[in-house]
Amino acid sequence: MAGERILVVEDDPQALLLMTEILTMGEYVVLQATEAEQALELAGREKPDLILMDIQLPGMDGLAAAQKLRGNPATRSIPIAAVTSLELNKEQVELMVNTCISYIPKPISARVLMNLLPGFLAASKQRQEREKKS
Predict the structure, then answer these.
(1) Of the N and C termini of the chain, which has fewer Cβ atoms inside 10 Å?
(2) What is the CATH number of the domain that holds 11?
(3) First to last CA, the chain
C-alpha cells in the first residue's frame, strides 16, 4: 500500500530519523512534526492517512494532542497510533484507548512497524469510504 501519507510526531531526532527511514523504504510519504502544536496544524492542513504520535512530547503531550485531533471535525477520523516506551497509568491507558487505534512500543522495530502498518492503514481506508458515503 505504498504512497500513503503518514504523519510522524516525534521529538527525539534519532527516533524521528529511524521511523522516517523505515517508512520511506516502505514507499510511504512521510510528514514530520516535532511537537504537538505543529502536528495539530499539519494534520488539519494535510489530512494524512495515519498519524504515529509519540506520547511524551514537550509542551502538550501526545495523548492531549490525540484528544484535540478527535475533537476537530476535520481530523477526528484520522487513525492515530500511539508510540511510547512509557508505562502508562490507568488514566493514560483509558485516554489512549479512546483516542488511538493502537500503540507501537519503543524502541521502534522496523519489522513490528511494517507489520502493523497494513492494519492501521486499512482503518484509514475504511474511514475514507465512510466519509464518501456521508
Answers:
(1) C
(2) 3.40.50.2300
(3) 25
